[in-house]
Amino acid sequence: MTLHAPLIDSHCHLNYEGLIERQADVLANARAAGITGFLNISTRESEWSDIVATAEREPDVWATVGIHPHEADKHADLGRQVLRDATDHPRVIGVGETGLDYYYDKSDRAVQRDLFRMHIGVARETGLPIVIHTRDAEADTLEILADEMEQGTFPALIHCFTASADFGRKVLDLGLTVSLSGIVTFKNAREIQEFTKEIPAERLLVETDSPFLAPVPHRGKTCEPAFVRNTAEFVAELRGEDVEQLAATTSRNFFNLFRKAGTPA
């Protein structure tokens, strides 16, 4: 059944292997399921132009520009002005994804932290939300966020929330939004599921992070933006809400946060 309320996939990678080969069909499937908007996320400079081109071609797709912490070493010399200039494109509505990943440690931690702060500075200057990835780096992520907030506030969200409830409460106290992926539907995600009930309605988003992390009942498949419906249904049940209500709320939250996107159609 198609949703009547709008529902946004607030984090997907439409230009990644698994989706790019059939991007038109992937988007058509999602639209048929009632998904009304897609935020296509970049992780390295070399893909910015392609991700922006997708957003130029598809009116319900927007783009971000940024450097994932896994790619930090390869972008250690990225100039701040390069990132700042890339945000000027009208279809670019966010900065990132960026942040810290100490689980895989694919890049030097100091370089990760420096690039994270640079992204925050650009987000502060432009007013665009910063899309944050954090894994096994709660203490440093919180320290940087708190320190940077003292220098001037900026809009931000934690995408694909997988951290502790304590971390979640602290980032909410800092004014951030929390986005839930298909991970929340996994059986071993009990702490995330309990924390989901605490998230204020106005600070909640849902996403797929496709082509990764397909939610139940699609685990093991290539994740698609259409599957955000399953995550929304699961989250709504956890929170004791109707899925139409949750869809409408998260869509409104998306446009309130990503103001450059405009207003819902």
Automatic annotation (TrEMBL):
Which InterPro entries does the protein's record reference? DNase_TatD-rel_CS, Metal_Hydrolase, TatD-like, TatD/YcfH-like
Keyword Metal-binding found: yes
Q: Which domain of life is it from?
A: Bacteria
Q: Which SUPFAM superfamilies match?
A: Metallo-dependent hydrolases
Q: Which UniProt keywords apply?
A: Hydrolase, Metal-binding
Listed GO molecular functions? hydrolase activity
| Pfam families in alphabetical order | TatD_DNase (PF01026)
Family assignment from sequence similarity: Belongs to the metallo-dependent hydrolases superfamily. TatD-type hydrolase family.
What's the name of the protein?
Answer: TatD family hydrolase
Provide the species name: Aurantiacibacter gilvus
